[in-house]
Amino acid sequence: MRSDPAEFELVAPGSLPAVLSLLAEQPGTWLPIAGGTDVMVLYAAGKLPAGKLVSLWNLPELRRFDVSAREVRIGAAATYTDIRNHAVIGKDFPLLSTAAAWTGSIANQNRGTLGGNIVNASPAADSLPALLVYDADLILTSVRGERRVSYNSFHVSYKKTILAPDELVLSVCLPRRFDGYFAHTRKVGARNAQAISKVCIAALARPNNGIVEDVRIALGSVAPVPLRMSQTEAVIKESALDGATAKRARLAAIEEVRPIDDIRSTVAYRKAVSGNLVEEFLTRMAASPTKA
Amino acid sequence: MTVPRQTCEIFLSINGQQRTICAHPMERLLDVLRHQLALTGAKEGCGEGECGSCSVLIDGVLVNSCLVPILQASGTEITTIEGLAQGTRLHALQKAFLDCGGAQCGICTPGMVLASYHLLSRKPNPTDDEIREFLAGNLCRCTGYAQIIEAVAQAAQPAGAEK
Amino acid sequence: MTPQRIVGTSVPRKEGHDKVTGKAVYIDDMSLPGMLYGATVRSRVPRGNIARISFGAGINWSEFVIVSARDIPGHNCIALITDDQPCLADGVVNHPEEPILLLAHPNQHALTKAVQAVNIGYEPLPPIFTIEASDRQDRIIWGTDNTFKRFLIEKGDVEAVWAKADYIVEGEYTTGAQEQLYIENNGVIASFDPDRGITLWGSLQCPYYVHKALMKLCALPEDKVRVVQTETGGAFGGKEEYPSMIASHAALLAIKSRRPVKIVYDRMEDMAATTKRHPSRTRHRTAVSRDGKILGGEIEFVIDGGAYTTLSPVVLSRGTIHAGGPYYWPSVRIRSRAVATNAPPHGAFRGFGAPQSLFAMERHMDRIAATIGISPVEVRRRNFLKTGQTTTTDQVVNEPIDLNRLLDRGLELAGYDLKKKRFSAENTSTTRRGIGIAAFLHGAGFTGSGERYLASVVGVEGLADGQVRVLVSSTEFGQGTKTVLCQVAAETLGLAYADVAIAQPDTQEVPNSGPTVASRTVMVVGKLVQSAAEGLRQTLITAGLPKDYSREQFREACARYVQQHGTLKSIAKYEAPPGIFWDDEKYRGEAYAAYAWAVYIAQVAVDLITYDVTVDDFVALQEVGRVLHPVLARGQITGGVAQGMGYALYEKVVWENGRMQNGQMTNYIMPTSADLPSIRVHFEELGNIHGAFGAKGIGELPMDGPAPAIVNAVEDALGVRFDRIPLLAEDIFTAVSSAPAAGDARTPQGAR
């Protein structure tokens, strides 16, 4: 344990307005901590830059689910276990449910939050590609009010987001319009559990009479931010759901991703596997009995 | 140069006992358990939430105590390995771990037993695959997991159905 | 012969209750009044002269105990074999993380800051990091030629076979470092008192190794050093020699401060600074006849020892002796070396050289098979050692081991033939299945004259309350030492298992039964426990206890004897069995008193989308002399197989300039419960006259087979050769996606 607790302050104001006031009074001073599964690792390693933390854990305004006909709103401090247990998310947004089950261990799912992962902005986080393909919006909140942004615009560059210093993510909004879509997700890691992904795919498509009418693909761990694969999608959209398209899509994906060599994997591997995963998605969709 | 912060009073319940802790809010639950409360069953194997040897239950939910600041445990009910047996009567899981060889060096055992306890509280009759998935956050270097999975399966069987 | 009631049954683990209730006391669970925490200031360069040491501003250094090489009362070394490893670097460092200074303070957090605030300036010296660089000898970093040790084994006339060979098969096989990854990090507490001397508690395998090291470091006599083993959370060899280092550090701080000092590493420090399995490179050149028989050959086996000698000569020895596998070599030349590099010294890890050389041998057997065009099964059948034949060291196999039959049984258990047929037919473009074999042996106990040199001593005593207590320095760290040795004593004495206890290993209380290594505890120490127990029984019988006594009669007689005589203790000393001959110079003769034999079969699936390997089924079949405790024995095998799978497929140490870069559990990947298949374990028992109740050692055996079996299976699945472990998805991708060189990367068609 390489940090001295005596040098850190942690406050738990207990309500969202109180937290937001604190962030507004001293912007950039208080680091929000929800479940702590990212922050506490840095802390124990002696690498936490902040000395003051404000707790978001279990704030009722942040740990709630709101289901309407149009959308599901997930409170930013909902844990991965909360998400896994939510019946509507399991039915309407299976890519997110599945990603939640892949995130760390059961113990870490019980504490890790969706908002925490979004703000931590690691391109390797398992849930983020799913949010991209589901056209998620984020509601950001501060003392100045709320604003709704497309999640697509949230990540600017590696670990840099559009979140203002006095802002929090309040909730994640998922539109309920993917009924009938073919959904596919896969995570590639160094082992079957508790692995930081080397490549991760979340994909949705709506085939119609052998043509792909709509397609959404996002990959994690292949760029400084979670990557919506728009060029690869362009190759697939309106094309026949066949081997030729799958092959073109694979090559397009290999071109589109921008991975790095790091301690976990290599550029060459990540590129190749990105292509393979996209191809696999299309192949599975073609073989699936539920193509429209 | 940083100024040391104040400690604060935190009320919580440990293994059924109400306690008042005086600690810095960012002290890890693991350290409070081990140093202030002399409950050394929870271990520090990695300090990064990977090995699970620090696992405890907060309000019946499995967490890695090395990742929980003590302030966030305020007002909760904590269960550690020391709270599992009823006096001298071992919990079925503890008996099963003994029968099946689920504990070798024993360092992962407190966390592993609590993780198993948490699993059985949600799935009283898990399949072997479900046991494997659920315990994947608790690393064991000695057993290769085989006899741990058997122990959990044995403890899950209804009384009287034990082999 | 009375049927056995205790040996052979799965009695409860002696210390199991404490382990499942959280009561077991590991070193970091302990505190002493007035205790300080200790920490180590370590080198940040791989090699260099220490130019200056300065203590940064902002720290009140007068609050700290500071120890350097100058504070060492005795010899600045960690006594082991060559004594070249300093306890604290004195003017020069030879590896990253080498200890330079020690600090102690009552507050752990203050200590962490202080370690960061020590500034050390170096004049860098050119380092080397690979076996190849060490071999070039254009930079000498150790001795005159960077070589800690060499061995040469020669049998028969190797030069004559090349001309007779129908095939000459060559191969080079490499293995990487592997971290033991015990879940409990290294830790000790030391206290010093001018009258009593040093007391050291710690997580360790060999109390007497630490005892010897502290005597030399602190210039203290035998009775002024006391070492006590605390409950140890995994070891696997990683706490065989390393604890002498951390113990020495705590002792020096305790001596200087006159306060107890605790040093416990966190995971990052433990991974970066302590020992790992020796990386290796083996080269085979084998003369083979048309019908697949080995005529002879040359084996070159080289291990990377890191910066100091430590145990490399012994690891090299075992790897060298096992290099020929369970096969008959009419002639062979085995040349082996342990070389120096500027990495933290590599050390003991379960298997101790054998997993390295056996990986090569078993991969090479498949290569021989492919070259000649026979199956991996057939090539082994044609070369297995038979009773009456000699090993590479000219040891006669004098037990009725039938390796062909063992292989038959393994193949049947694995469903090998059916699966081979199915896989060829079923393999798709995205999933390729394969099945691979490893056949091997593992010698138990110390090599050759080693056990005689150890001269182990064991005690069994009767207590005033009639209980019996086993006295050994052999330690429990999960493998079941306490349980099995109590079983042995109870069985020998005709008592109940509950009647026998075992003393905590404390050099003040127990004799030196040798280190807890080399799979020797049940076999060698157990046999001594048998003898000592027998001696105790005879003493009581001579004193009047009737020969067919009951438990109660025994207890009464024991209590009475202790009351009358003060103590009741029987000592047994190791005696080398007659007719065991070993030549240390020529490295020839009876290398081990007993070998266990095994056939492991791995079934894998390779996913060509992700290039991941999944082990779908694993059969571990071994002949082990006698199974003394079915649950414990099975636990040794499943645990060892899991570590072997990690060695093959997951555990890569990422090095940069001699330092481990992935020293966290997030990035050093060991298998979770979701990664391992069911491991199917089966035993055979031929007995062993040299082991307690016929047991052979089994602790390390399961480490030897999984890696070659798995890699053989992957080659079977893909038709591509892999000669290096760990074998990661990235490596498979690189091999599968690169254009195959003519005849080189691909296994020739028709080989199956």
Structure, described:
The complex is a heterotrimer of chains A (292), B (163) and C (752). Chain A has 11 helices and 14 strands. Chain A is α+β, with helices and mostly antiparallel strands and 292 residues long. A 5-stranded antiparallel sheet of chain A has the order 4-5-10-6-7. Chain A is globular. Chain B has a 5-stranded mixed sheet with strand order 2-1-5-3-4, with helices on both faces. In chain B, helix 2 packs across helix 5. Helix content of chain B is 30%, strand content 15%. The relative contact order of chain B is 0.15. Chain B is of the alpha+beta class and 163 residues long. Chain C folds into 3 domains: 36-125 and 186-264, Aldehyde Oxidoreductase, domain 3 (Alpha-Beta Complex); 280-447 and 586-737, 2-Layer Sandwich (Aldehyde Oxidoreductase, domain 4); 450-573, Aldehyde Oxidoreductase, domain 4. Chain C contains 20 helices and 28 strands. Chain C has a 7-stranded mixed sheet with strand order 3-5-1-12-9-10-11, with helices on both faces. Chain C has a 6-stranded mixed sheet with strand order 7-15-14-13-8-28. In chain C, helix 8 (312-322) links the parallel strand 14 and strand 15. In chain C, helix 9 packs parallel to helix 19 (706-718). The radius of gyration of chain C is 26 Å and the shape is globular. Chains B and C meet through helix 2, helix 3, helix 4 and helix 5 of B and helix 1 and helix 17 of C.
